[in-house]
């Protein structure tokens, strides 16, 4: 639960407009250091002060789009958010060295949207639906 003192302190740090946006989108008042951004424009934050944040909740993402979901977080940032990696991808030399130049950029999961992949069949069907033949009555 968010305490009143923590909420007021966060409002003073991030400003009234950003505080209101956080309350609408993530339902919590957070203040921290911006660590980096990804190709979607999502901003990633971290607050290392143990007195302000619950352990394990000190890293978070601020999505750039209004309609957001978890597939809009690239794998490198996902591993940082979930404490698999210590350093952020833009500061981690291992991730920067291991990303091959031929690798395609990350694309969010488009299932359920108009841009979802829809396969089409080019093979002649083996089973045909029954089509009733109506004979004229005499």
From TrEMBL:
It is a peripheral membrane protein. Its main location: mitochondrion. Keywords: Electron transport, Membrane, Mitochondrion, Mitochondrion inner membrane, Respiratory chain, Transport. GO terms for biological process: response to oxidative stress. It is found in: Mitochondrion inner membrane. GO terms for cellular component: mitochondrial inner membrane; respiratory chain complex I. Belongs to the complex I NDUFA12 subunit family. Accessory subunit of the mitochondrial membrane respiratory chain NADH dehydrogenase (Complex I), that is believed not to be involved in catalysis. Complex I functions in the transfer of electrons from NADH to the respiratory chain. The immediate electron acceptor for the enzyme is believed to be ubiquinone. This is NADH dehydrogenase [ubiquinone] 1 alpha subcomplex subunit. It comes from Ephemerocybe angulata.
